[in-house]
């Protein structure tokens, strides 16, 4: 299957992408991984992206699209893929449509993870990270440490990252609503949109997503 995964910040896209890709036996292609891989390998696109990023500028759509297209052309993606974090806007979605059409393939579904805005703020703003090891992550509501402000694993101080503050989260949501959310209507018009609730436990959301994708695929058959 060829799938695009969309949803607001805090919807759990990265987590669900990993589980869905494994269950469907297709590669998980994220924008972050594309940038890191191209920059570390020193590809032409990676050099272009790094130049923009070093200057504090956004990487142009054509560079991101080029990276995505190269990745989708690799052997492990011939039977399908799951795109996470791309496309981010309608122009990228249209470019993706054109690229796939030129290769004689098309998307099977666009999975929209739906989460209420207040829940997004609660999920992200409640995160606390250990100063000693950023892999030690807690949440004031969902996975609180035994002692407030203290890491259960190593005893380090827990803190809230600047980009996890409520103010920053709401700004990120504004960007999502303005730039990314319009692609939902773009794909709805093509009959590709599959929307599920991303509330609940991780495995419950994964099961919900798999059932929705299988139902959608059966309906298209």
UniProtKB/TrEMBL annotation:
**GO molecular function terms listed in the Swiss-Prot or TrEMBL record:** AMP kinase activity; ATP binding
Which UniProt keywords are listed?
ATP-binding, Cytoplasm, Kinase, Nucleotide biosynthesis, Nucleotide-binding, Transferase
> What broad class describes the main subcellular location of this protein?
cytoplasm
Question: What Enzyme Commission number(s) apply to this enzyme?
Answer: 2.7.4.3
Pathway membership, UniProt: Purine metabolism; AMP biosynthesis via salvage pathway; AMP from ADP: step 1/1
Looking up SUPFAM superfamilies in the UniProt record yields: Microbial and mitochondrial ADK, insert 'zinc finger' domain, P-loop containing nucleoside triphosphate hydrolases
> Cellular component terms, GO, for this chain's entry?
cytoplasm
Residue sites binding ATP per the record: 10-15, 127, 137-138, 200
Listed CDD domains: ADK
Record field: catalytic activity: AMP + ATP = 2 ADP
Region (NMP): which ranges?
Answer: 30-59
Q: Which residues bind AMP?
A: 31, 36, 57-59, 85-88, 92, 161, 172
Q: Which InterPro entries does the record match to this protein? A: Adenyl_kin_sub, Adenylat/UMP-CMP_kin, Adenylat_kinase_CS, Adenylate_kinase_lid-dom, ADK_active_lid_dom_sf, P-loop_NTPase
Q: Which residues form the Adenylate kinase active site lid domain?
A: 127-163
Recorded superkingdom:
Bacteria
- GO term, biological process aspect, one: AMP salvage
Question: Could you give the domain comment from the record?
Answer: Consists of three domains, a large central CORE domain and two small peripheral domains, NMPbind and LID, which undergo movements during catalysis. The LID domain closes over the site of phosphoryl transfer upon ATP binding. Assembling and dissambling the active center during each catalytic cycle provides an effective means to prevent ATP hydrolysis.
Q: Quaternary arrangement and interactors, per the entry?
A: Monomer.
Q: Which family does it belong to?
A: Belongs to the adenylate kinase family.
Q: What does this protein do?
A: Catalyzes the reversible transfer of the terminal phosphate group between ATP and AMP. Plays an important role in cellular energy homeostasis and in adenine nucleotide metabolism.
Q: What is this protein called?
A: Adenylate kinase
Native organism is Streptomyces wuyuanensis
């Amino acid at each position: 299957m060829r799938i695009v995964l969309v949803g607001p910040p805090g919807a759990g896209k990265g987590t669900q992408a990993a589980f869905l890709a494994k269950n469907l036996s297709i590669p998980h292609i994220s924008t972050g991984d594309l940038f890191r891989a191209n920059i570390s390998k020193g590809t032409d696109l990676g050099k272009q992206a790094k130049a923009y990023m070093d200057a504090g500028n956004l990487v142009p759509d054509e560079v991101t699209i080029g990276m995505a297209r190269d990745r989708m052309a690799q052997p492990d993606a011939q039977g399908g893929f799951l795109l996470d974090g791309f496309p981010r806007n309608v122009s990228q979605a249209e470019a993706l449509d054109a690229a796939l059409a030129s290769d004689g393939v098309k998307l099977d579904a666009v999975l929209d993870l739906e989460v209420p805005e207040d829940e997004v703020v609660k999920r992200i703003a409640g995160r606390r990270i250990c100063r000693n090891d950023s892999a030690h992550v807690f949440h004031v509501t969902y996975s609180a440490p035994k002692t407030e402000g203290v890491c259960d694993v190593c005893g380090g101080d827990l803190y809230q990252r600047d980009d996890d503050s409520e103010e920053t989260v709401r700004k990120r949501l504004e960007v999502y609503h303005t730039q990314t959310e319009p692609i939902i209507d773009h794909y709805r018009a093509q009959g590709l949109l599959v929307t599920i609730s991303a509330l609940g436990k991780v495995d419950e959301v994964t099961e919900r997503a798999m059932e929705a994708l299988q139902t959608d695929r059966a309906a298209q058959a």
